[in-house]
Amino acid sequence: MFITWALIQSALELGIIYGIIALALFLTYSMLNVCDLSTDGCYTMGAAAGAVVALAGHPFLALFAAMGTGILSGLVNAFLQTKMKVESMLAGIIVNTGLYTVNICIMGKSNLNMNTTETVFSMMKDLTKDTFLESYSKMIVALIFLVIIAILLALFLGTRLGLSIRATGNNIAMVKSSSINPAMTTTVGLCIGGAMTALAGCLLGEYQKSVDVNMGTGMVTVALASLIIGETIFGRKNIKVRIVGVIIGSCLYRVIVAIALRFNLPASALKLVSALIVAIAISIPAIKEIIALQKTKHAAMLRHRELYQKGGR
Amino acid sequence: MLKLMDICKTFNKGTVNEKTALNHLNLEVKDGDFITIIGSNGAGKSTMFNAICGGFYVDEGFVELDGQDITFLPEHKRAKYIGHLFQDPMKGTAPNMTIEENIAIAYLRTSTSQNAFLSRVSRKEKEQFRERLAVLNMGLEDRMKQPVGLLSGGQRQALTLLMATMVPPKLLLLDEHTAALDPATADKVLDLTKKIVKENHLSCLMITHNMHSALELGNRTLMMDSGRIILDIEGKERDGLTVDGLLEKFNTGAGKELDNDRILFSK
After folding, report:
1. What percent of chain A has pLDDT over 70?
2. In angstroms, what separates the C-alpha of A207 from chain B's closest C-alpha?
3. B244 to chain A nearest CA, in Å?
4. Residues ≥6 apart with Cβ < 8 Å to A153
5. Does B80 contact A173 at a Cβ distance shorter than 8 Å?
6. Is B76 in Cβ contact with A160 (below 8 Å)?
7. The whole model's pTM is what?
8. Taking 70 as the threshold, does the pLDDT of residue B256 lie above it?
9. Residue B22 β-bridge partners
10. What CATH class is the domain A5-268?
11. Cα–Cα distance between B150 and A40 in angstroms, integer?
12. Could you give the 3-state DSSP secondary structure of residue B152?
């Protein structure tokens, strides 16, 4: 069969884990209006730190270790942006570049193998052994994390601090005049985003049982694609709908990629496919507009011709 | 309550574009003063406001509010005491957020403790917001869930005014806040300003290009030119003044003749 359930299932599992990164970008990119390009490195750092701790026998502590590193990365990024006035994109690139070395230092080499290590996924698999849930154990773990994060994020964005973060991305002058320090809101936003990204990295490392220093390359594009697919389909209504949209966007993206790869494409084509999907997803609103304008023009032309023929003869 | 002492500010120092915006400026605002400020473009009116609210730090001199030296206090900290409205109605509100969310942020100024940051807006507070909005008489209280971007300029400015005074500041700075509105809406926002200033006994500085409002509103009028205050009138002297008289004073004060077609104010 061309598309099997197993294929969709693993796509969904990945989509759910990557959904956490998409939500991180939803916070920093859509809400805070900061283009955080440190995602790639931050994601790998979470995976690396998590793997080191998991290999030491603490699969749960690994998650917190990962989030800790994510917060650190966010702090450095925010410091550069708010105190040193480095352009947000540039700050992200700088942090990202530096993190490559940091990640190798954390792991001690450029990749780690966790084949026999206990992870949150293997624990769930043991827990559900011999029940009908066994084959879904990975998805259950991923879903638990995603749902908790999505709910916390939605709740957080409704608090005064969350509102302040949204306002920072919307109108920074207004934030200052409401006696909120925009440097503080930016820092909090980037730290939370970093923690989420790193957590997703840690989960993915445990999921695929290996961590490589290059695993994060292009991750920001993938997360952005998910975010934009979600926002294009679901629009920009209220926060809750948008969060659900981003998650569905992430799963949809993975399914699209899985299907694309079924066309006997080599694995190296994945990045090009990602780039194409992002480009198309971002272009959809503009394409819609162009089509609408052409229709209006065509209708106007017909009417004009009609009037001219009546009046002319 | 507010003291500006010997304030200097020069932009682009040491370049060909060097511009002395504030030139040894002194001003003392008394409690409850409602001061109108006039002056041509580039006279330093908005720059003075920025010096007060902390948009930049001054090169020389001191800013004092209620006896406290705030010269190097960052803008967002001063905002606890100073409300600021701009000419551009877009500046004071976050367009993608709802009316309710905007007010909730403005309302944050009340909270002093840090954990208030993680609190949510309560039902009771929402009800309070509604009542406040109803005072504007623009029907905004029924549109609390709509993004502010959908409001007209006048509505946004009225909302901004409400937000800036939600928690009454010590000092309210109005930078031509009605200049971008149509005459009827401008009148409405101005009436609202008067009402809010009076009810809360705010001290207020208002920049205007309308000579009539300059004389009609408030209790004191300043005239600025080249980064200095060249005229400061109040009391009897001000009561008897007409628009023509004010213009004449401007000419003598500025030490230069303005020919009629270069008159910079609308009468």
Report:
1. 99
2. 33
3. 37
4. A23, A26, A27, A243
5. no
6. no
7. 0.90
8. no
9. B9
10. mainly alpha
11. 37
12. coil
Chain A window 140-199: which residues touch B at a Cβ cutoff of 8 Å?
A: 158-161, 163-164, 166-167, 170-171, 173-182
B1-81+169-182+198-260+262-266: what CATH class? alpha beta
Say yes or no for a CB contact (<8 Å) between A160 and B116.
Answer: yes
Model pLDDT, residue B180: 87
Contacts of A165 in chain B (CB under 8 A): none
Domain chopping of chain B, boundaries: 1-81+169-182+198-260+262-266, 92-167
**Cβ contact (<8 Å) for B97 and A181?**
no
The helix or strand, by DSSP H or E, that contains position B252, with its residue range, turns out to be helix B243-254
- Write the residue in A158, A166, A174 that is nearest to B93 by C-beta: A174
CB A217 within 8 A of CB B113: no
Structure tokens at B20: 């002395």
pLDDT confidence of residue A237: 77
pLDDT, tens only, A203-235: 999 999 999 999 999 899 889 888 988 888 887
> A179 vs B105: CB contact, 8 Å cut-off?
no
Q: How far is CA A120 from the centre of its chain?
A: 21
For chains A and B, CB pairs below 8 A equal 87
List, for residues A273-301, the tens digit of each pLDDT value: 878 888 888 888 889 899 999 999 999 99
Determine the pLDDT at residue B261: 40
CA dihedral B13, B19, B24, B25 (to 10 degrees): -130
Q: What mean pLDDT is predicted for residues B43-69?
A: 94
Task: Enumerate the residues of chain B whose CB falls inside 8 A of the CB of residue A174.
Answer: 91-94, 102, 105
Do A164 and B108 make contact, defined as CB atoms within 8 angstroms? yes
Q: Tell me the C-alpha distance between B197 and B169, whole Å.
A: 10
How many Å lie between the alpha carbon of A66 and the closest alpha carbon of chain B?
24
Nearest-CA distance from B38 to chain A in Å?
A: 24
pLDDT digits (tens, 9 = 90+) for B126-145: 898 999 899 888 889 999 99
Residues of A in contact with B110 (CB under 8 A): none
Q: Under a CB-based contact definition with an 8 Å cutoff, are residues A195 and A39 in contact?
A: no
Domain boundaries, chain A: 5-268
Q: How confident is the model at residue A311 (pLDDT cuts 50, 70, 90)?
A: low
Which SS3 state, helix, strand or coil, does residue B215 take? Answer: helix
Give the chain A residue nearest B103 (alpha carbons).
Answer: A178
Pairing between strand B220-225 and B34-38? Answer: parallel
What's the gap in Å between the CA of B15 and the closest CA on chain A?
A: 22
